[in-house]
Every structure is written in structure tokens, then in C-alpha cells.
Automatic annotation (TrEMBL):
SUPFAM superfamilies: Oligoxyloglucan reducing end-specific cellobiohydrolase
Transmembrane segments: none
Entry protein name: Photosystem II stability/assembly factor-like uncharacterized protein
Coiled-coil residues: none
GO biological process terms on file: xyloglucan metabolic process
Highest taxon in the source lineage: Bacteria
Highest classification ranks of the organism: Bacteria, Bacillati, Actinomycetota, Actinomycetes, Propionibacteriales
Length: 357
């Protein structure tokens, strides 16, 4: 199954294990922005979650327990700020499962993290992060100020790593009672010379990690691709060999902790693929070397792939997918070696999620 979130609704794709032919339904939530999706395969039946936002009704986390045939929502919104914060959720940018049964995390704009213990039906604010002394100085990236990445530790429910634009990487090791910045070694190229390695304020675009090696993190920055081998304590550049170090998504192979994918963009104002060619780049040695993957992808391609619009499924031979701002979704059933277009002419794609059910 594929979930495709766009600026004007959600589309669902299904295929057999070959992933050669796909059938799509949509739009679900027509004319609503869908920035986050989750296929939660825990429990007796899978649950689909979608973070949708209506310009008239505001944001809502919708859920389906029948693979999208019907949808439910929580009255007055599942994700809400407490009254004393005087804040309102504008968008839900991230939905991810925690390591504990029933736990789901949501990242929002304005920048906050919420935690659910009932598989996304209700959420509570991570208050210590909202009250963090750095928060008044967090900037807002071009897309807004939001926690767009949440990485619960797969084995330790006390530990969560998260990132926002433009604030950088933060981590808790005590179930959210306290949070610390974890940006040592990440360059903020947009700051003046001599000030480019601050404690916080980096424009991190996305982070990922493999559950079998949770201490290793991969990061795509606003100028820079990095790896950490100590769970964000320090970061090392792994951009050598790439045609550009700017981009939005970064995806780890579901079975190989050393295999990672990026979609580089020209960092100039155009922010289109380098040389106008759609190319995914893959490293099989944790970023020491990179290879270009373009079989089946177009050579005239001037649209971007956003931070959550690239993912992998968890088949034995994984599929890799990316959606574009011109409404197309491309897929590979052989780990990125060859590609084909799965669907086209959708609205602007913001999120793609895949899972074997």
C-alpha cells in the first residue's frame, strides 16, 4: 500500500507483491492539505493515519481501520494545544509510531511534538519541549516552523530524536522531561562566517535511522549530508561524491543500515535536480561512496522532491518511492536499480508512505 499526501487531498495505491501494477483511489479529503501519513501495521489490523488541514475547518488527524474505505476523526481535532499556551495547530507535519503499543507521535506547526497512547485518536503536548528556553529563538524555514522529523528509539521508549526547521536536532532521554540540542558538526551555511556552527538554529531538512543500528543517524541539511554514529552527539559530513549537498529527503534501506538514499537538488533559487535530471543517489557504505540511480527516470526534470515525499517499503527486496511537486509518483521494486512512473497528474505531492500489508 502507498499513501500519497498532496496539497489537495490524499490518494491510496495498492498492488500485489510484484509492485508492477498499481490501482489508486482518491482524492480522500478533497481540497485539504495532507502533509503527513502513517501506515501503522501494529495490532490485529493496520490503521491508516493522515494529518489533513482544511482552510475552513483547520487541522485534523483522520484514521481508517479498513484501508481507507471509511475514515473517523476525533471531535474538535485530535491534536490540540492546551488553552494556556494560546497557540493553535496549523498543520500536522509528521505521524510516526513509537516503540510501545499504541504510541504515536505527531509533529506540528507551530513547532511542537504531541504523543498519543491510543493509536492516534487523542494526543498530549510534550510540554518540556514546548517550554524549552531555545524556542523563542527558533526560526521559521521557507515552509514554516515545524517539527517535521520524529525518531523514537526502537528499543528505548525514553529516547526520542527530533528535528525542526529552522532550529536543528533535539533529543530527550527521559521520556520528554528534558530536551537538549544535538547539532555539533552541522553547518548552517546561511549564517555569517565564524558563526556557522551554532548550538542550535540549523535548517535540518530530514533525519532517518535503521532500527537495527539506532545509534546511527543520517541527516539531510540545508546544504550538507551527514552521518552520526553516536545518536546525534557528533555529526560527520558524507556529502563527498554527491553532485550537490542540498536536498530534502533522506531514506534508509529497511534491511541494511549502511544503505541510504538521497535526492540531490541544485541549492540555487531554482532548487531543481542537478542538470535538470531526475536522479536518486544511493550509498551502500554509510555515505563513504555514492552511486547514481537513473534507469527509467526522466532526463528533463525541473521539480523538487520534498522531505517526506520519499520512502521505502519493507518487502524482502524493498521498493523505493518518491513523489514530486508536479504530481507524479515514481517507484522502484528493486532497491532503486530501475524506476517507473506509478501515477501522474496529482496535486503537489508532500508525503509518500509505503508498507507491506
Amino acid at each position: 500500500m502507498l499513501m500519497i499526501g498532496t496539497r489537495k487531498g490524499l490518494w491510496l495505491g495498492t498492488s500485489d507483491e510484484s509492485r508492477a501494477e498499481w490501482a489508486f483511489t482518491g482524492p480522500h479529503f478533497d481540497m485539504e492539505e495532507v502533509y503527513s501519513c502513517l501506515i501503522d501495521t501494529r495490532g490485529a489490523a493496520p490503521r491508516l493515519l493522515a494529518g489533513a488541514s482544511s482552510m475552513w475547518l483547520g487541522p485534523q488527524v483522520r484514521r481508517s481501520d479498513d484501508l481507507g474505505a471509511t475514515w473517523q476523526e476525533t471531535a474538535n481535532g485530535a491534536v490540540r494545544f492546551p488553552d494556556d499556551t494560546e497557540a493553535n495547530v496549523e498543520r500536522v507535519w509528521q505521524l510516526v509510531p513509537g516503540p510501545e503499543e499504541g504510541v504515536v507521535y505527531a509533529g506540528t506547526e507551530p513547532a511542537a511534538i504531541f504523543r498519543s497512547t491510543d493509536r492516534g485518536e487523542t494526543f498530549a503536548l510534550e510540554r518540556a519541549l514546548w517550554d524549552h528556553p531555545h524556542r523563542p529563538d527558533w526560526g521559521a524555514g521557507f515552509g514554516g516552523q515545524a517539527f517535521h522529523t520524529i525518531l523514537p528509539h526502537p528499543d528505548d521508549p525514553r529516547s526520542v530524536t527530533a528535528a525542526l526547521s529552522s532550529g536543528g536536532v533535539y533529543q530527550t532521554g527521559d521520556r520528554g522531561a528534558s530536551w537538549e540540542a544535538r547539532n555539533h558538526g552541522i553547518r548552517a551555511e546561511f549564517l555569517p562566517e565564524g558563526e556557522q556552527y551554532p548550538e542550535f538554529g540549523q535548517c535540518v531538512h530530514k533525519i532517518t535511522r535503521h532500527p537495527a543500528r539506532p545509534e546511527r543517524l543520517y541527516l539531510q541539511n540545508h546544504g550538507g549530508v551527514y552521518r552520526s554514529d553516536d545518536e546525534g552527539g557528533t555529526w560527520k559530513s558524507i556529502a563527498d561524491g554527491l553532485p550537490a549537498d542540498f536536498g530534502f529527503p533522506i531514506v534508509v534501506h529497511p534491511h541494511e543500515p549502511d544503505t541510504v538514499y538521497v535526492f540531490p537538488l541544485d541549492g540555487s533559487a531554482g532548487r531543481h535536480p542537478v542538470d535538470g535530471k531526475a536522479r536518486v543517489w544511493r550509498s551502500r557504505d554509510a555515505g563513504e561512496t555514492w552511486e547514481e540511480l537513473g534507469a527509467g527516470l526522466p532526463d528533463s526534470f525541473y521539480v523538487a522532491v520534498m522531505r517526506d515525499a520519499m520512502c521505502a517499503d519493507d518487502h524482502r527486496t524493498p521498493g523505493v518511492y518518491f513523489g514530486t511537486r508536479n504530481g507524479a509518483v515514481w517507484g522502484s521494486a528493486d532497491e532503486g536499480d530501475t524506476w517507473r512512473q506509478l501515477v501522474s497528474d496529482l496535486p503537489d505531492v508532500m508525503a509518500v508512505r509505503a508498507a507491506a500489508i
